[in-house]
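Researcher: Let's try something more involved. This one mixes different molecule types, so please make sure each is placed in the same coordinate frame as the others.
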Amino acid sequence: MIERPPNQPPPAGEGVSLFGDAPEIDLSRGRVDLTLVRLRMAWRTLRDGWAVFVESRIGVLSLAIIAVFALMAFSHPILMATVWEPDVYDPVTGYAFDRFDHPAPPNWRHPLGTDSLGRDILSQLLFSAKSEFILGITAALVTVGIATTVGAVAAYYGGLVDSLLMRLADLIIALPGISLLIVLSALFNLNLFYLALIIGVLGGFGGTAIILKSQALSIRVKPYIEAARAAGGSHFHVIFVHIIPNLLPLSLLYMMFTVTGAIFAEAVLSFLGLLDIRMSWGIMIHTANVGGYLLSGANYWWLVIPAGASITLLCSAFYLVGRALDEVVNPRLRRHDG
Amino acid sequence: MPMTTADTEPVLKVVDLSLSYLTRQGPLQAVQSVSFELGRGQSLGLVGESGCGKTSIANCLMRLLPDNGRLTSGQILLDGQDLVPLSEEEMRHFRWGQMAMVFQAAMNALDPVYRVGQQVVEAIEAHGVEVTTAGARERVARLFRMVGLDPQLMERYPHEFSGGMRQRAVIAMALACDPSVIIADEPTTALDVIVQDRLLRELKGVQRELSMSMIYISHDIGVVAEVTDRIGVMYAGRLVELGDTADVFGAPMHPYTAALMSSFPSISGEKHELETLPGEPPNLANPPAGCPFHPRCAYATEECREEFPAQVQRGSRWTACWHPLTDMAGVGQ
Amino acid sequence: MTSYLARRAGQMVLTLFLIVTLTFFLVQAQPGDYATFYSLNPDIPAEAREQIKASFGLDKPLWQQYLVHMKNTFTGNFGVSFGHYPRPVMEVLAERLPRTVVLFLSATAVSFYVGFFLGKAIAWRRGGVLEYAATISGATLFTAFTPAFALMMIWIFAFKLGWLPVGKFLDPLIWRGAEVSANHVFSYMLATAAVFIAFAFLTLLAARKLGRLGTGRMPFLVIAGGAAVIPIVWAFTGVGYLALDILRHMILPIATLTLISFAGTMLLTRNSMLETMREDYVMAARAKGLPEKVVRDRHAARNALLPVITSLVYSLIFAIDGSVIIEGVFSWPGTGMTLLEAVRSEDLPLVMGSMVFIGLFSLLAHVIVDVLYVYLDPRIRYQ
Amino acid sequence: MRPAGWLAVCILTLCLFALLGCTPEVVREEVVREVEVVVTATPGPGGSAQTGQTSAPVGQAPDPTPGQQAASTTQPAAATPAPPTTTDATENVYQLGISADLTTTNYWAYLGPDGTIWNLYVLGGGKPVLYTYSAQRFDWVPSLAADFPTALAEETVGGQTFWTTEVPLKQGVKWSDGNDVTAEDFAFTAHTAAELELSGNWPSIVDPEFFDHAEALDPYRLKIFFKQKPGLARWQFGQAFMPILSKAYWEPVVAEAKQAGEIIEQQKALYAHVPENEPTAGGFGFSKWERGAFAEKERNPDYYFADSTVTQYASGAYAESKPGAYEFAAYGAPGGDKTLEYTTGPYADSAIYSIYGSQDATVLALKKGDIDFMLNPLGLSRGLQEQLEGEDGLTVIENPSTGVRYLGFNFRREPMDNKAFRQAVATLIDKEFLTSTVLQGVAIPMYTMVPEGNVAWYNADVPLIGQGLSRGERIAQAVQMLKDAGFTWETEPRISEDGRFVEQPGEGLKMPNGEPVPEMDILAPSPGYDPLRSTFAIWIERWLNEVGIPVRADLTGFNLIVEKVFDQQDFDMWILGWRLTLYPDYLEAFFHSRHAGLEGHNAGGYNNPEFDRLADQLLAETDVETARQQVFEMQAFLADDLPYVVLFDTPLVEAYRSDRITYPYTDSLGGLQNASGLTTLVQFK
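Model: All components are placed in one shared frame. Result:
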């Protein structure tokens, strides 16, 4: 074996944690008090973290972009229920009867034009935004749920459990993700939910677990864990009440990266025509490609640019928010000591 | 200004040096209006609790401030040349060539991926002290012997060195270009007492031998007493007392100096009761008005709380205190 | 060292075994089977269909198929491809592997270098315009929709400007008279690269051992000399023009892959640099009066490289992954295109073979990076 | 980078340029070709002989596709320049783009398990065949055969009864190794296929149930023995199209393969052989395969049919001649208006098939001029078509294709087994609206299982259910049909005043037996796989739901549909497609009740004795004219009984570099790719 300094971006041993490091827990105090203290500390760390975060202009900008997309996602059902007739504006089965020159360029009824099958691009774009959020967030939650548990359990128990989980993680990161997903989606006709689940599971048992485990290791040796054990806390209690909450900030960071990965993977797979999804940004580009409009450059820009730009914008926004969070979580990256 | 033991022009003269760090909480006054002189061949100790600005002064002298450090006022005159307005490139020649540094944690001051000898040679080559590789190597060997290291060791990597060896190597490195001033920043902190003691002696010896000037920075007033001619006591970014080592030790004028002395066991082994200093050093981002020491000072009065005390000069030494101890005790006039 | 290598090899075999098993059952679990897919032709009588099944070994029970597959895999032929019947999967993959290896190793090297270079630059001048520009453009390219982006690159540089070829790895008009096959030339190229890397590595190693303190430029001049010999040798082989044709075809894909992937390395390097720059030895280097560039490159960046080099594994895997998407656009029929083609035509043995190959490749990448790490960090030794 | 590094880069670059300077033109020298001298004998169509015949689900991926039939309109033949009797200083290289590599160069394997469309494009046409389809009109004409065969006759040899036919062969047709192409070659090829039980397309070419053996009465007179009387599909449109392989080259290979143990191993050994310098008798000989990059065929200087001229007349007459060698005429007396005339080349010195990884890359290569023509079984999509139409130097051509997309019913379930229900569904589907309005003409509505372009077999006179009706009329009619058949609603659908939309959708539809119509799924390809079919599925779902038929479009992957429909027969309705052969014996395969078993092609379980009778008749028929009447009848029957609601087909759009090349004709069912890019006819400007 090779002995080496910790892999990967160092997991910020002294990082802020959502609940503070709570170094001096007075065990004689009542639980309610403790919770209150914790909440207060959590609020303070959140506030401090936010202060660090807003220093990153890119991070704030990215957050704003995500917010815009979230608004778009919410606006779709509202628009469908109010101003858009389903016959015309349904993203999958709609047909713009008002004209027959599809793909029609942007006009006042269809601000982003229509696709080659006469469907409203804006409606598709907004509808897909929702799917992408569902996909990304499901995948991220699954990843983080699994990875935090795996990381905490591996770090807490050590020994065989640790070895098994970590070897599994090694195996998974040795597999190229997109290739694997291509095989899976071609063989099993994945829909959005299964795709999210698979991405989540792969991420959760893979690289993210390793990183969270090394963070959990540094938490495990903190005095308050010992104290909690000494005070008779069960393994379950220690893991879920003391270790996992302290892993959450780092988990949040990796959630962002998972979202990026999931959205991107979906787009690629849809583009290759391997997914069982009715509408997404990837499908929009795929439709344009099948229609032969990918090469048409500026002539049919509305078929490709809105979807393509949305993929890039949302992916990189999540990615950059993750990067900015990295600076919050890992004080060694901060510009100023504070 | 009082002259020091060496009756020559001071090799280093620091005038009214102030330094602050920009932080999220606002500017942090790390060093405030510090002035001192260092004579040729003389050694000056700077003591104080951690965070009092000693290391900042050292870094400031080398002009090695972090991004957020700002020199707000002052001059650093090295052989009469002010270093403050120099460009980075001009400054480069002063570093090591004129003024070298022994780092706080020798452990980390050596680059882990290069051989130790190579790291010394690098400095020599950068300043053109020796032009041939053979010459440089010869010089490194000499330096190694001087600090008590086997010259063979220069082919080794830092991780193969023990803590003491590393510290010696760092000292050898500092000597590489015959600097006129050496700044030793807590050079012995991480070492055990015996190694520490031996190293101190050697450092002192080398300094005498090469008649270099030295600024020795430590939180351990006992160590400083052993190696320095003069001593400066710092508190919260200010120099609060400066004088010949013997004088200061004999009769501290500032209450803080006195407190500091009593909180360390004497290195010479004299037994006296250790006192702990109550309270904590002030937050430099929001220092208390007046004398920064007043919240912890037993003698503090109203004026202490309102205005920073003026210097009280006593021959070659001075202190900044409204109530110098010797006054109260009626000694030293 | 030997025991380390033995253990490492053992681990690899075990991992490989797991990958093979995993892919086998994954593929078997899918609905529908190949024989149906290929026999939906009403002109093929039922007996012929049964015969097709039999010839593909699909008539046996699952566990037997698994054993056969295991045997095939570890005896090296990976079974017979359905789509290229009766060529062994191994042969199909061996034909395509050199193309992927040559292109994606070069691309990874270039993108790694670019990423590292930019990363250290933006960390050094933190908060500069360059940092914003590089971070935003890097992240944008990183998340750009790869197929469309690659196509756009071809459209601009190959079609509109006409500087480079429209994909493919060679020009038929140049190659139709060629005596040797492209795979020959690819393997020569790989051999050249291997020899040159070994030469450079040994030179540096020798310089380290012999020159001891050597900060001199001698070893680099020797390496440069070695590099200069390469074209001369090639000129004598008589296939130099063919290699040049391949190189010309490699420019655009490499540029595209670099643009897509440099951001990962760049941002990692940046973070690693920011941490390294706080180290005392960097300050010491500066205190020694070393020029900025030396402090940055020889001390900060050199140490920052260490954690980044571990990510080289991920860069390589990312590149292999990218090959699935990119190869089609650049008409570069390597393992990625093979996987996609196999998946689409339900050529199950080829699917499994490709996955195993890709897994093997990433295992090898791990080993290479381990070795590289030992070289770069003197603190690390085999245990 | 260190200075030494820069130095290295500089040196390297310099050396590379030096290298570039000294070895650029190695390429040019080698190819100066001899003029070929033409010998004597019989006719051969310009294009490639068509080989395997299959119908396979229309996928996006390779399917072996042959088959063709005349486009109804033809254009006057282009004036034919002199055949290639002079050697030009510059070579004419016909560059074609293909989208996937060959998988074999072995003809046995290509017609066996490796029958990809790309193999067909490159390898097709390289072998002599007895008979072939004529260009454009797809008349059945002799190629290697000197004339039509003798009529099938019953004959008893050694106590066994055979149906036999005799075929005269042209003399003087040579393999490129100098041997004559003889009846022995035919017998060898057919026997090998039969003895080794070759798979893939072989059983449809050499059907072991019919073919017994072939004899060379003399080298130029062939006699074929059938075990039972072969219908058109087995003899004229089957065995007669069999590519003939060189006995001299293959005999040792086959002999060795036969040593390989079990039959499967024997086949494997034969398929695994990689031919080198295999003799050709076609216009080109396979010369180079740079795997993954390109394949090249070089002109066969001894091509027998070079210089032969084919003329087709508006009267239907066909004439073919080669000066000093042969003359042939059929289907009426030559004379009157010529619809087509061309002289066979090859005019190209070489044909290079360059492999591109995606349609977009191929199109860019075409636009840039790297290739002259692109072979693509799906043709160009509308966006690309539009783009190329405006391009200088490019000509875009559009031809009908040979496929069909359909909605199939599962007759094993209610109410799909109810004819009125099926007809109501068909009435509700407005194909014209979908194809012309929604799909903007990228699809053509169809009503029968034979494409219109297949002129000889297409029955224009089938029931056109629903055609020309407005939305409201369709609904009204469908509702009436259902009512007549005993269906009832809880809430009947109500149409708006103007008849344009449904005000009140139907609810609670009950079958004649009083039970509610169950929820039904329409399996259809996902938009990712085929947006056209998924669009149809979605609209059908909507229209059926309007009248209260509870269906849901289940857009899913291709294999899953195949699995459910063909392997498990667990489904309600499905939408897929077939690629069709010219000779429509597939009607029997798709709809005869004997094929309704698991994995059979009659996946819907259609079972109509009346139809079965028609289908059996067709199989046995040996006369083309009678067969045509039967096929017409079958089409009309199916269009009314509706086991499939035939939906649409897509036209095939292709483009070529008209600034570099010309074709004698471009109107052809299935496009020029169906004639493998007319390699022997293409001429250069």
